[in-house]
Design goal:
Number of domains of chain A: 2
Structural class of chain A: alpha+beta
Number of helices of chain B: 13
CATH class of one domain in chain B: Alpha Beta
Radius of gyration of chain B: 19 Å
CATH topology of the largest domain in chain A: Ubiquitin-like (UB roll)
Oligomer: heterodimer
Structural class of chain B: alpha+beta
Helix content of chain B: 25-40%
Number of helices of chain A: 6
Strand order of the largest sheet of chain B: 4-5-8-6-7
Largest sheet of chain A: 5 strands, mixed
Order of helices and strands of chain B: EHEHEEEHHHHHHHEEHEEEEEHHH
Number of strands of chain B: 12
Distance between the termini of chain A: 38 Å
Shape of chain B: globular
CATH architecture of one domain in chain B: 2-Layer Sandwich
Chain lengths: ~190, ~325
């Protein structure tokens, strides 16, 4: 049986659309055109361990590139102005808001998104903790919460629930699942 | 967002050459990209300066030098800064979110633009965004706006916490243009709006901030930053106070006090400092000195509460810093 869920369908459609759309943009970056008059660029990144080469309009945020060009729709767009944290990813190992930076600024970067956390089919300890602790309701902020939580644990700011709350304050959950989110981060921090 | 050309500067020369011809410098981008998306900022070209050699923190016996491209999180985490400059580390960690602090640079922090909702709304009158168009905040929703340093043209607060600490500590901003290096006192760097609120700082066209230098003074024996907000974290200040005190044998020998969230620029309080120096540390002294914190204030229709709030913020932080070991 072919199992096509919504995420697979959306992701595949974007990947195909992205491939088609790159043709005119790459043509726009041709030798005959000076780079400094162009409003699009070619970026090379390693995304979740995979080398990618993507032509982007200079205006494309790293978030939009991931979702609409790389087909990685796990990273969510909430406010698109750095106020909610739904778009949090790891950029060269550090948690950042992917909506507040341009893809074109990160040629050569190493990026980890929610899709890149699992290892050999096993969830990352913090993903598993979110499941175990019921740390979400609608789930829209969850990818950003988990990526931010991974950053928070790496930075060593999980000494107490109060410290976790402060250092996770860049991630808004409008369902109000904060209590279980803090518990999940604390549990994963102890187990990593 | 409007289209723009993009380039990366490999060195100062190529950055300055792009800057002089009108390109906007971008480092962390957390303010600029947001405002470009709102079409408040419409640069035709961006030049990425992240490859320039401004990424060092150099702590010497007499001063701290912070490269302009150091990230907020890096400066806040520096062990020597945490030990010797608590007011700087605290002002940074009370700013923004962990994600934004990982992105935003020290130079960019000083170049932040106002958070006034009318400045960010391109359909509203704003003399800062569109000189001569008026100020929608003066007769509008102005609860979060300034009571000090305002003019008929603009009442927006300066959003930076770090800048309040830097002004308190007499820091200097180091800049470079094609003619060479310059130094600007932090207190002279930020311009009050007057009749030209669009001129926010004294950085020349195409000039780069290269570093910030902070002298090490006896007042740094005790220092700290208090930020009062509408929510406990990830919010701009309604009122804030940077305090540094040198207290010897129960007497205040020297004091530095600056406030944020209430003024159009980071606001030093010389009257409060003068009321402290030479006097015996006590709860009464903190209250008496802090009573000068709102001298000259001109409240707007919705922000009169800030007059009392800033006095109490300064009083509380004087007591907290004086009580440090």
């Amino acid at each position: 049986m072919v199992d096509i869920n919504r995420r697979t369908f959306v992701g595949a459609s974007i990947a195909v659309g992205g491939a088609v759309a790159t043709v005119p943009l790459i043509a726009g970056c041709g030798d005959e055109q000076k780079a400094d008059t162009s409003t699009s660029s070619l970026v090379r990144m390693r995304i979740n361990g995979e080398a990618r080469e993507i032509a982007v309009d200079n205006r494309t945020s790293l978030l939009d590139m991931l979702r609409e060009r790389a087909g990685l729709t796990g990273t969510k767009k909430g406010c698109d102005q750095g106020a909610c944290g739904a778009c949090t990813i790891l950029l060269d190992g550090q948690r950042v808001n992917s909506c507040l930076t341009l893809a074109v600024m990160h040629d050569g970067a190493e990026i980890t998104t929610i899709e890149g956390l699992e290892r050999n089919g096993r969830l990352h300890p913090l993903q598993q903790a979110f499941v175990d602790e019921d740390a979400f309701q609608c789930g829209y902020c969850t990818a950003g919460q988990i990526m931010s939580g991974v950053g928070c644990i790496n930075e060593g700011h999980t000494g107490s629930p109060a410290e976790i709350r402060e250092w996770m304050s860049g991630n808004i959950c409008r369902c109000g699942a904060y209590t279980n989110i803090v518990t999940a981060v604390a549990h994963a921090a102890r187990n990593t | 967002m409007y289209p723009f050309r993009f380039s990366k500067a490999d060195d100062e020369r190529s950055a300055l050459s792009a800057g002089v011809s009108g390109a906007r410098y971008i480092a962390g981008g957390t303010t600029l990209i947001d405002l470009m998306r709102e079409t408040v900022e419409r640069p035709e070209a961006l030049v990425d300066i992240n490859a320039l050699p401004y990424r060092h923190i150099d702590l010497q016996p007499s001063q701290l030098r912070v490269g302009a491209l150091v990230r907020m999180s890096e400066l806040a985490a520096h062990p020597g800064v945490r030990e010797q400059f608590p007011v700087i580390a605290q002002s940074l960690e009370l700013s923004a979110s962990a994600q934004i602090r990982n992105m935003a640079s020290i130079g960019g922090n000083l170049m932040q633009r106002p958070r006034c909702l009318y400045f960010r709304d391109v359909s509203a009158a704003c003399n800062r965004r569109n000189p001569g168009s008026g100020c929608a905040a003066i007769g509008g929703r102005n609860r979060t706006h300034a009571i000090l340093g305002t003019s008929d043209a603009c009442v927006a607060t300066h959003p930076s916490d770090l800048a309040v600490a830097l002004v308190a500590l007499d820091a200097e901003v180091l800049t470079r243009d094609r003619d060479g290096e310059s130094r600007i006192r932090a207190s002279d760097f930020f311009r009050q709006p007057g009749s030209t609120p669009d001129q926010e700082h004294s950085l020349g066209r195409g000039a780069l901030i290269t570093a910030v230098e902070v002298p090490i003074v006896p007042e740094l024996r005790r220092s700290g930053y208090l930020k009062v907000r509408d929510r406990e974290s990830f919010e701009f200040a309604i009122a804030s106070a940077a305090v540094a005190l040198d207290v010897v044998a129960g007497t205040v020998r020297a004091a530095r006090v600056a406030v944020g969230g209430v003024a159009t620029v980071p606001w030093r309080l010389p009257a409060v400092e003068q009321a402290l120096v030479g006097r015996i540390a006590s709860a009464d002294l903190w209250r008496t000195a802090a009573s000068h914190a709102a001298d000259g204030a001109k409240p707007l229709t919705e922000n009169g509460f800030k007059v009392e709030l800033i006095k109490r913020t300064v009083e509380r932080q004087l007591a907290a810093v004086a009580g440090l070991p």
